[in-house]
Amino acid sequence: MQFIRTRAVGRTTMLALALAVAAIAATTVTAAPVRKSDVGGEHIHARAGMSVKIKVRKDAMKGCNLFLTTKNFRWAPEHASGKHVRGEGHAHLFIDGKKVTRLYGPAYYLGELAEGSHTVTVSLNANNHASYVHGDNEVSATKTVVVPAATSTQMK
User: Fold this and answer.
1) Which residues contact 72 (CB under 8 A, 6 or more apart)?
2) What number is the average pLDDT over the span 94-121?
3) What's the predicted TM-score (pTM) here?
4) Cα–Cα distance list, 131 to 28, 99, 111, 112 (Å)
């Protein structure tokens, strides 16, 4: 009987340690405060380590392209606007704080942006459009894009 009790305490300790490590990892991959989601402010706690990174590159012809790298997330355009399935969904694209579109994969042509500085933000969202969050921070990434008067797009 003593052996069983010791194993149970060991499992509890391991679970507490795993949760502590997940909490530390989660706070290092997100920094944006939670924004109101498309489904009335609903949010879903993300898998540990879920993250998104943004790269914006000048397009060879004109404008620029957006490239996303995600971790612990599966793109699921076939389930958009459906039931929540843990760890899958789509993204929402915001330019200068205004929602532009949904993203169903890791690449998107942004087109030509007007002269000036622009904030490009991408948030990861569940199939039902709820924002994925780690604590009080949404799983998102932001990049500043500067378009000078000469129309050559530069990234910061």
Assistant:
1) 46, 47, 48, 49, 50, 51, 87
2) 96
3) 0.72
4) 18, 13, 26, 28
Q: Cβ neighbours of residue 36 under 8 Å, at least 6 residues apart?
A: none
pLDDT (tens digit, 9 = 90+) per residue, 47-65?
999 999 999 999 999 999 9
Q: Which amino acid is at 31?
A: A
Cα four-point dihedral sign 11, 14, 18, 20: positive
> For 3-43, what is each residue's pLDDT tens digit?
333 334 444 333 333 333 333 333 233 345 455 545 556 88
SS3 string, 13-40, reads HHHHHHHHHHHHHHHHHCCEECCCCCCC
Q: CB-based burial of residue 10 (10 Å sphere; 0-12 exposed, 13-18 middle, 19+ buried)?
A: exposed
Q: Please state the domain count of the chain.
A: 1
Dump the DSSP string for 66-101: EEEEEES-EE-GGGTTS---TTEEEEEEEETTEEEE
Distance CA 20, CA 27 (A): 11
Q: Which domain holds residue 92?
A: 2-155
Output the domain CATH number for residue 66.
2.60.40.10
pLDDT at 42: 83
